[in-house]
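New to this. Please check both lines:
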Amino acid sequence: MQRRRFLSSLAGAAALPAISRLSMAAGTRPDLYVSCAVAANGKFVVAGFAAGGQPRFEVPLPARGHGIAFHPTRAECVVFARRPGAFAGILDLSNGTDTNWIEAPATRRFSGHGIYTADGDRLIVAENNFEDGLGVLGIYDTRNRYRRIGEIPSHGVGPHQVRLMRDGKTIAVANGGILTHPLHGRDKLNIQTMAPNLSLVDALSGALRHSWSLPPHLHKLSIRHIDIDRQDRIAIAMQYEGDPHDDVALVAIADRCDGIRLLRAPKTLEAKSQRYTGAIAFDSSGNYIAASAPRGGITIVWNAVTGDYQRHIDTPDTSGIAPTGKRGEFLLSGGDGAIHRADGQSGRFETLSPPSNAHRWDNHMETTVSL
């Protein structure tokens, strides 16, 4: 694909290598947020903005984007196509160019997310092997222009979001359980037999280290998005494919000691969410979890220690969530173009950028700090 320049300057904010938010020291405040969006001209882009909502850059995409991953030691990030997608773009944050584009193999499709290994030498991408319907994690060599060098199993069907555990050697994989095929677009082909799981996979060997599954009566609860705190607790956001009137939780926490612990919110809020959650994030302290419910226009916050519902925040067409570096505080983006800052403890809410057609934000937001 043709190289493109950023449409506006980074103003030096990301001229140095970046570190992931999982590695941020306590009290560190992120200074760059990145999300996919639809621009004012209706074209798909990936864009960045500062912690105060000020725009930093914009890069065109060939189609709708989804997840973002930051390289752990270089001023570089990758943006993934929305599933089922065939492209991923590498952005050089130091000089304002897209430096490379990855295309999915002929029998694979990208599932929207990926993660770098701790040393940054490999990019691990959630992929769908549509020949046999099983999920794989594609492995790409970042030292050799992101050449694909192999794959390991995801140990499930429909892998979506992946995160790296604190040991730097284990990948948490949200296997959503939903079978798809490029000939059928985004159609879900196995709802009656779907079996989601959350798997811990060895990044080198592909061996399954641990796996969690939901009770059989919740097999239609697709495990879609995850986040990890400094204690290796995994926050889970789910989407229900069963009867919309069923009484089901949509968020959970998993760890090796307690298994999967379902978190409940008031039934009126769970109903308002239309049994669908999107992005999920721990705050910088790991004491709070926020999950977006875009169909209900709300963001719901839980106490991650007790599992208790904390509060909800009305955010029309809510999309991405990321921590700010302050305990209990999150940045929230919306499909209406707004960016908000919200305190999950006190309920304090501030709109940093009002609704706008300049960038109508997509599902996810990732953040980093400059070294």
Residues 267-272 form the longest helix (6 residues). The chain has one domain: 18-370. Residues 18-370 form a domain with the Methylamine Dehydrogenase; Chain H fold (CATH 2.130.10.10).
